[in-house]
User: Fold these one by one.
Assistant:
Number 1:
Amino acid sequence: MKRALQRGDYVEIHWIDIQESPAGDPAEAYLAQRKSLGVFWEYKDESGVPVLVTTTTVDADGETGQTGWCIYPTACVQSIRTIRRARKPKK
């Protein structure tokens, strides 16, 4: 049985972003598929929209990064892969 994500799991998120080109040709439009790495925080409801929250997010290409948090509408998330499980809390 696959374990659900828990706070602290290090994950890779594949998601769809907005792609814009004010001067471009609409016939050439394509989805911006991105991959980010982060620490899972929680799933929650934000203003009626289900979202995924991560902390310390870095784009997998290594070019851009963000410290703090990142919130993804779950409808934009294509897949989540667990890279490393969080340590279980000691009892």
Number 2:
Amino acid sequence: MSEVTLEAIEELLDGMFDKKLEPIQKVLVAHTAALEKLLTEKKNKDEEKIVSAERFDRLEHWAFQVGKKLGIKLEL
């Protein structure tokens, strides 16, 4: 005869919840993966913007230096 103990109840409930929560866990895994992908893409775009801005600043500085040596006043 099996005894009704706290351990027996916990084992029974764990099995029930695991099966019921499995579809939710699958959705959460997919959701988390999608969020990580979006975050990575945003981070990459932010880094690209920083690199582009730095390149533009260098080109702008170079253009002003050339303009100064040629006696041309550049306006932005």
Number 3:
Amino acid sequence: MGAFTLANFKTYLTLALGNREGLTPYLLTWINAAYIGLCSINKVVSFQKVKNLNFPELDTSKNESTIDGQAYISRPSNTLAIHTVWDTTNDRKLDSKSSKWYFEQTGRADTASEGDPLYWIPYGNLVYLYPTPDNAYNMNIYYRKRPDRLVNDGDVTAIGEEWDEAILQFAKSKAMADLRDFTASAFWKKEFMETIVGQVGMQEKEAIDLKEFFRIDSAYDDFGY
């Protein structure tokens, strides 16, 4: 059948809810909450181990230029999480620091303390740089973006059809919770988690070739290897 369109999601969710009347206005909310909620998950637990959940389709970058004496650049408006910041002018990666560390630094407003930025600090809708830039530098912000909401019946997700089942299960869980059927909500939440754990396992298959040395698969760790 191919990737689900928004129309497909609405049809199957309506069916799962027993074709109840009066729920059509809420379908879009449940589906988009499930879709964006899934894309916002960073880690899951599998075999009692924390596993990274990756969506390469959502990884992107944006260039921002610094201004002499301005301590920050703008965070892309559709950012879910920043991976790193690269100074393309000096061809180097900036290290990440916490906002607590940044606000403990003195002399940030002193022009004598300006220089080549070495650190980036996430803070609200801004990315602070330290030292404060003394010139215009090109910064590439690498980040996971927030996907656009599904709006039109022909819309498909940005993350590939292999995630359609998980989105539908998550939408069912959210809908059942709002309808106060908490048993059904818990059931579909469990199905959702099992589906995404399976997808994490498939992602790890692709990552095997990236390992720099041979080791036993982590699935066997609990068996004494």
Number 4:
Amino acid sequence: MVFGVSLGTYTLLHVVISLIGIGSGFVVMYGFLKGKPLNSWIAAFLTTTGLTSITGFGLLFTWQCSAFIVLGVFAVKRYRLAPVRTMSPAA
């Protein structure tokens, strides 16, 4: 049992989330190749990939900390706020 769910059900949930992440990743890649970032698909990709990493911790067979850290770095870089630019007085 993993978090009150049978191992088979938990693994199936993990795999389904992973497949959704892979599918949304292909859509994101297509958008990047066409020069059109698809923000909602990027959010879906990052969310499902993050959920894949998180649910992977419940599986006792693997430890995915490095993948989770890399995903976190890219998510922060993608969605961080741009620095506020102030206008200087004209000289």
